[in-house]
Amino acid sequence: MDTQIKTPETKSFEADVARLLHMMVHSVYSDRDVFLRELISNAADACEKLRYEALAQPELAGEAFQPRITLHADKDAKRLVVEDNGIGMTREDMTEALGTIARSGTRAFMERVEAAKAGESAQLVGQFGVGFYSAFMVADRVEVFTRKAGGNEAWHWASDGKGSYEIGEAQPGDAPERGTRVVLHLMDDATSYAERWTLERLVKEQSGHVPVPISLVEKPGEEAKEIADGTALWTKSKSDVKPEEYADFYRGVSGQYDEPALTVHYRAEGRHEYSTLAFVPGSPPFDLFDQDRHGRMKLYVRRVFITDEAELLPRYLRFVRGIVDSADLPLNLSREMIQESPLLGAIRKGVTNRVLGDLGKLAENDPAAYAKVWGNFGTVLKEGIYEDFERREQLLKLARFRTTRSGEDLRSLADYIADMKEGQKAIFFMTGDSRSRLEASPQLEGFSARDVEVLLLTEPIDSFWVLNAPEFEGKPFKSVTQSGADLADIARDNKAADASAETTPEVEAFLAFIKNTLGDAVADVRASDRLTESAVCLVAPENGPDRQFERLLSAAGRLDTASKPILEINTGHARIAELARLGGADEELKADIAHLLYDEARVLDGDKPADPRAFSSRLARVIARGLPAA
């Protein structure tokens, strides 16, 4: 697009523009891709301005005005053109808009609209006046050809962004009939921005929902192909959107090919106006357990993409995909500055509450569908129980568990409380690395005998959230591996035989002997009211950490000193009764038995014997004593 400029005039940028341009290119924007967003935003503004002006002067736009933005790509010539058929500019407009940083024709136009108290709502963006200069991140020379609506003169502006610009009359044919044409002469390392797939991707990600259709001419001479239709799905009423439209949008915004399990679509009005279109995926995203745990919600301002790093949802909802489009947030100098906006905090709170509320409705109205959601994302939602004090009760209501009663089904805490036994004061749980091992644990025997339901928690996060969730609906959480389980207050099942027995003096003496023999290895040795079949088990002190939580901390190297366990003895067990009758005979045998009982409890608890070599020697001696004499 060669041009001969009539009577060009060279002017210096105001405000030491060379320094400001350098700062803007290297500091204000976090990546080069934003230049296209900014130029398309400016073009959309120009079209919106013409639409508004044409309300009073219809001749400016003509009867059949159809706003449009067209991208012309020419990789061979290393050139990209962004053209609109909007309001256009005069020479004075160009000097004002393109010669001074931090001043904006858009801002001036908004002031005019406000002053006139217009009833029309013009959708305008780019109020900070620096977006255009982002073009110099990818171009070593930028030209602008423009013709004001209703005018005959066309103007040309050109600069390399290094301190000055040229402005003069454009050659006939170089400027559009009305509107603005921005020509970027791309740097050698930026020629990919003249490729079809790059432009389509950027438009789809960043500007596919501006209120003006966008077309692409892939090569000079080819016909334009529409790549964005100028409508935004989230601006439509829910009743006007088909399920397949939601599904297509979901796949585009999430990069997945499944069906969404839940769609959240609403518009908030009042103090803050914003639209939300969010999806809970039908299957776990590949990055669900990414260490960075970043969210994947996109932030738009008046249908212009700003960032996908605004953390619009807490990290425990990072599996949710979608967009939030604000009518109140400014298009600020940088994406990073938006993070500090109090408006964003209010939006984040509103969107989070809505997503959790809709998950609650799904759980109530379609338990089977919600069970799949919990199966996919329950582990991540539990992080919220641990982290989000404000919404802990709400998240606990959403939580689902397998229990000693549930089989393969899932149970809510509300279900659990409704079925609590008479005299039961706590929600009992047990943590471990597998359900089968938990169900075989001797620590559950007393609960099974009383038909007391126990939550079976098999994920590492379970050992953490139960510490931060002291109670639910007035019922405290209590580990079955801790002492003081209050089982004595709960009557046994009528069908279960009472395996307890009175503690005889012989048994009391035997327990005292075991405690004295084990010494510092245990905190206490006492009769158990939880064992019905097994002889022994280990439990944690009442105020100590859960046994599984302590193991996790120890494995992670975050526990200097482990708490001493309590060894509980089933005084009604036949083997214990026989051992107690040994009396004072053979102290060595009784000492070996005391240590073997402790090691048996450790093995049942999922640990190794305290001293494997000593365990082997003691076991060999006991076996030898039981063999007939040669």
Automatic annotation (TrEMBL):
Residues 552-630 are annotated as: C. It is found in: Cytoplasm. GO terms for cellular component: cytoplasm. Keywords: ATP-binding, Chaperone, Cytoplasm, Nucleotide-binding, Stress response. One of its GO terms (molecular function) is ATP-dependent protein folding chaperone. This is Chaperone protein HtpG. ATP binds at residues 38, 42, 84, 89, 104-105, 127-132, 180, 335. Residues 31-190 form the Histidine kinase/HSP90-like ATPase domain. Belongs to the heat shock protein 90 family. InterPro entries: HATPase_C_sf, HATPase_dom, Heat_shock_protein_90_CS, HSP90_C, Hsp90_fam, Hsp90_N, Ribosomal_Su5_D2-typ_SF. It comes from Tianweitania sediminis. Homodimer.
